[in-house]
Amino acid sequence: MEDSRTNQKSLNPGVPIGVFVSWDNRTRVRSGYRILMGGSPWRMIRLDDRSAAFAREIHAAGRLGVSVASDWESKAARELMARGFVYPGVATASEKIDKSSPKSADYCVVIPVLDRAKQLAELLNLVRIHDGGVAEIIVVDDGSENAAEIAEVATAFGARLVRLPSNKGPGAARNAGAHIASKPFIAFLDSDCMPTAMWVEQLFHYFKDPTVGVVAPRIKTIAEDSSVLQQFEVSRSSLDMGCFPDHVKKGGRLSYVPSAALVVRREVMDCINFEESMRVGEDVDFMWRVSEAGWCVNYDPSVFVQHRSRAGLRSWFVRTFEYGTSAALLESRHPDSLAPARLSGWNVGILAGLVFDKKVGALMLAVIASGTLACRLRQLPRPIPTAIQIASYGLMADIEQVGRLLRREWWPVGLGILASVPKSKMGRRGVLIMFAPIIIDWRLENQRLDLCRYALMRCAQDLAYGSGVINSAVRAQVWRPLQPEVSYPTVITSRVISSVREFGHKLGSSKTFPKFSRFVSKRWASDASSSGYTP
Asked: How far is C-alpha 398 from the geometric centre of its chain's CA atoms?
C-alpha cells in the first residue's frame, strides 16, 4: 500500500494551481538569480533565464508569496520546493482560512493522556472555546491510575473516551485514537499543550497540495514562573523547531517535528502508524517513514501551540536523557541516519591545524580547498569570491557541529578538553570551539538569561541528551550514533583508493588487503559523492 502511494506521488507533475509559494530567506542568490545557494540539504543550483525570473518574482513577493498560475510554474515550483528553496505559504491567517479549506467538522482531535486530569480539563476547555463545540474529540487514556477522573473530564466536555487496559506509550495511544477517528484529518495534541485559536484551520491550506500528508505548527514553551529553567525553555525548548518554515525530511535541514501537536491526513494513518514499541523517538520514526512513503511533511512556525515546561530541573534533565536513548533504536530502523556530525575532510584538517597551532598548514588547506572549489565553479561569473564564501559557510557550520559533538555525544572528550585549559593552549582552543556557538546563539536569541546561566543550561541540555545517546549505543551495541561522518575531498579520495588498490594488487596472495580495498572504494566513494560543497 505504501509503495503504490509512493509511486503515485512521484508522478505528480507539480504544485497545484492556485497554491502560494514563498521564498526561503536563508537562500542566497548570485548572478541575477541564476545561481541559488541554500536549500535542504545545502546545495548550489543554476537556473535558466525563465526560472531565474520566476525565482526573483517569488523573492520579491516576501511573505505573501506567489500564486502558481500555469503548468510551467507548477513544475518549477515543485522543483524549487523539493530542494528547499521555496515553501508553501501565504501572508496572514485570514488568507489561510478560505472557503475551500476544511472546517472544524472535517477534523478530529486525538489527545493521549496519562494521569494528567487537571491539564486535560484545561486543554479540552480551550479546544471547545476555539471550535465552538463542533470538532470531534477522542481522549485516549493510556492506562492512567486515576481513570475515573479522566473519564469524568472527558464526559464533561463531550469527548469520546478510549481506555487502554495498560500503559502502552504515546505511539500506541495515538494509534488507538486515529483508528476510530472518522474525519479526513486528525489533529494530535498532547495533554500538556495549550492550543491557540484556529491553529488547525490555519494549517489546512497546506493540504490543497495532495502530496502533503503532515503539517506541524511551532511549539512554544510558556513561562509559568521566573525560574532559570522556565526562562531557558522559552527560547531553547527541545520541542521548538525554530522560526523558519521548512520541509521535514531525513537528512534535511529540519529532520523531524515533535508529535506534541500535528495535523495528519487520514490517508497517511491508514497505511503508516506510530511505532508502538518506541516510548521515545516514535515521532522521528513516524516522520521519516511518512516521508519515505512519498508524502510531504511541512513545518509552519507562523502557527503555534503553547506547551508547558517540565516541573523541575531533575524532571527536565531526565526527559532530555530519555530523548537521547532513542538514538540506537532509530539507527537500527533507519541505518546511517543518525551520525552526530557530518563534516568536510577539508574543514577537519583546517580545524586540526588551528587547534594544534599549525596555522600555516591550516591556511594552506583553506587556500587549496577554496582554489579547488573555484576551479569547479570556473563557469560562474565570479568563481573565486563564490568559492571563498561557500568554503567559509561550510567551515563555520562544521565548527558549530564539532562544538555540539564535544558537548553532546562526545562530552567525555569535551570534559577532558575543559580540564586541560589551565595547562594547554590546545585545550583553550578546543574550549573556544565548544563554546563559541553558544555565545553566538545567546546574542542572537535576545536571551532573558545572562550568558553564564544560559551557557550552563545549554551544557546541561547537551550533556543529558548525549548521555542518553551513549547509554543506548552501549546497551544495543550500535555505534553509528556516536560516529561522525567525514566526507573526504574527491582528489585525495581517488588517489588513496587507487593506491590501496595498487597495494592490494601487489599483495595478490593476501586475503586482507583486497577486502580492505573494496571497503575503502565503496565507503569513501559514497562519502565523496555526497560531500556537498567539498571539492
From this structure: 17
> What predicted TM-score, i.e. pTM, was given to this entire model?
0.85
pLDDT computed for residue 102 by the predictor: 55
Q: Report whether pLDDT(75) > 50.
A: yes
For domain 102-309, give the CATH number. Answer: 3.90.550.10
Domain boundary assignment for the chain: 2-91, 102-309, 342-485, 488-529
pLDDT for 104-147, tens place per residue? 568 999 999 999 899 999 999 999 988 877 789 999 999 999 99
- The model's confidence at residue 211, banded by pLDDT at 50, 70 and 90, is very high
Quickly tell me which residue has 507539480 as its cell.
14
| 36/414 Cα distance (integer angstroms) | 37
525 burial via Cβ count (<10 Å: 0-12, 13-18, 19+)? middle
Q: Is the pLDDT at 530 greater than 60, yes or no?
A: no
Instruction: Count Cβ neighbours within 10 Å for each residue of 457-492 and write b for 16 or more, e otherwise.
Output: bbbbbbbbbbbbbbbbbeeeebebbbebebbbbbee
CA 272 – CA 293 distance, rounded (Å): 9
Cα separation, 190 vs 274, whole angstroms: 14
**CA 339 to the chain's CA centroid:** 13
> Across residues 280-285, what is the average pLDDT?
95
With CA atoms as reference, report the closest residue to 86 among 26, 133, 8, 128.
Answer: 26
What percentage of the chain's residues is helix, strand, coil (to nearest 5)?
A: 50, 15, 30
Going 515 to 517 to 520 to 521, the CA torsion angle's sign is negative
Pairing relation of β-strands 35-38 and 28-30?
A: antiparallel
How big is the CA angle at 208 (ends 204 and 209), to the nearest 5 degrees?
120
User: Do 268 and 291 form a contact (C-beta atoms < 8 A)?
Assistant: no
Closest CA to 501 of 486, 487, 515: 515
Q: How far apart are the first and last CA of the chain?
A: 41
227 against 216, higher pLDDT = 216
